[in-house]
Amino acid sequence: MMTLARRMLDDNDCTLVVANHGEARKYHQRGVADLLSLLTDEPDFLTNASVADKIIGKAAAALMIEGGVGEVFTRVITRDAKAMLTHAGIALTYETETDIVQNRTKTGRCPLDTLCADLSNPHEMLLAIRGFLNTANRGMAVNGKYPNKIQ
Fold first, then answer.
1. pLDDT per position in the chain (151 positions), as tens?
2. According to DSSP H, which parts of the chain are helical?
3. pTM above threshold 0.90
4. Cα(first)–Cα(last) distance of the chain, in Å?
5. Contact assessment for residue 92 and residue 86, using Cβ atoms and an 8 Å cutoff
């Protein structure tokens, strides 16, 4: 399944591909939104999945570990994320290793990786990520719904 996931990541304008149970899905949201949605709404689809992601930092690695993914390919990974995935026994292939994932304006570190910097337990990181995103989305309802709000 990893070969298909990698090919889909390369051939499509997507940020994430998850392949499992004979099915491959592509995702387009920024950051960890799609991983978090899968972990929350369809955790079985992540279990032992093949995941191809453009960029993996510590926050994304924590979600993959919590989801029990089987193998990961990424174009760019941080040293912290690499150490976490390796320690968790997840097969990892990557193209480039870096110190940080930059924020969207390229003026500093990704806020979720900053949030997770001093945490070492993936479950604690998951709770911190959910809290951060819920706070960030509070009051931003569109048509009565909260986009990316984690229930």
1. 899 999 999 887 899 999 999 999 999 998 999 999 999 999 999 999 999 999 999 999 999 999 999 999 999 999 999 999 999 999 999 999 999 999 989 999 999 999 999 999 999 999 999 999 888 776 554 434 444 434 3
2. 2-11, 33-41, 43-46, 58-67, 79-87, 111-116, 122-137
3. no
4. 30
5. yes
